[in-house]
Amino acid sequence: MSDDSLDAKPVDLSIVLPVFEERENLRELHRQIRSELDNLRYRSEIVFVDDGSKDGSDAVLREIAAGDESVRVVRFRRNFGQTAAMSAGFDHALGNIIVTLDADLQNDPADIGRLVEKLNEGYDVVSGWRKNRQDAFILRKIPSMLANRLIRRMTGVHIHDFGCTLKAYRREVVENIRLYGEMHRFIPALAHWIGADIAEMPVNHRARTWGRSKYGISRTLRVLLDLITIRFLMNFSTRPIQVFGRVGIYAGLVGTGICAWLSVGKFIAPERYSLLDRMPMLLLGILLILVGVQFVTMGLLGELMTRTYHESQDKPIYVVREVINGKSRQPRPLGE
Ligand code: UDP
Ligand code: MG
Description:
Shape: elongated
Distance between the termini: 7 Å
Oligomer: single chain
Number of strands: 7
Helix content: 40-55%
Structural class: alpha/beta
Bound molecules: uridine-5'-diphosphate, magnesium ion
């Protein structure tokens, strides 16, 4: 994805870590990742993304990078959030396989090898499942359980734990996904949408020993709103007129029916219907016609916006897995 992919050494495996104020966790984290990577026979690199930490994490990262040439550090100018940090990590990673994990030592680097092995069985995404999660019960585990259930239902992706950062991806998957808002936790859903094969694997989870969680209960609402967006993008984004237009036409037809019935009745039995058209039926009829017109118009506007969305970003409406005996002609984003 980045330009330096041409002159850098070949890399098979990239470890991507979003870092926000994790100063005292970083050296131990690096030591554990190093020892796991040394056990594995991959050409690997470690990409730390410092998401605008102000606690001195940057100095520690600089030190770590000085002592290990496979470490790269991407530093943000300010705190842009975990999703942005992971996105930057994907953009800077050179490996064909990318593993993400939290930088707070809650995920166990010793799981990296197992995830990659699973990925190599033929999956595109292998998602960690914090089966024995070490976080507060009421404020963290319960909301997360409910959120996971809802996300499962809304996206049709049947994994237990969307929120676990520890995941392994094939490069093509993250190249085809653009992340916004709090969407890093929906990567499996977005990946599913582009046709990726997803597996899940229980992973170790440890309690946080230094620093504190960057999220509170308010995250639930943000996740919920993002879920609505995801659901919309997955289902309707290339055919808004089909969704809004259908509702509009039904409403319009019923409304027209009601109004026609009232007007015809007025000719046939004026004495009865002169009363009727003062009844709520007339209001309902007119309301439905207006709603119908509004929905059809909304659908048309949606169509216009969809075209702008896809064409301005050169975003195709399909994703090619491979082309046999030829090169994929899928348009690449501008500037690549
Ligand atoms: N993080 C980040 N930017 C943020 C918030 C968090 O890069 O704005 C990182 C953080 O350093 C950690 C990971 O994202 O590596 C997960 O954060 P945290 O441990 O606070 O979340 P939790 O485990 O409590 O869900
Ligand atoms: Mg954590």
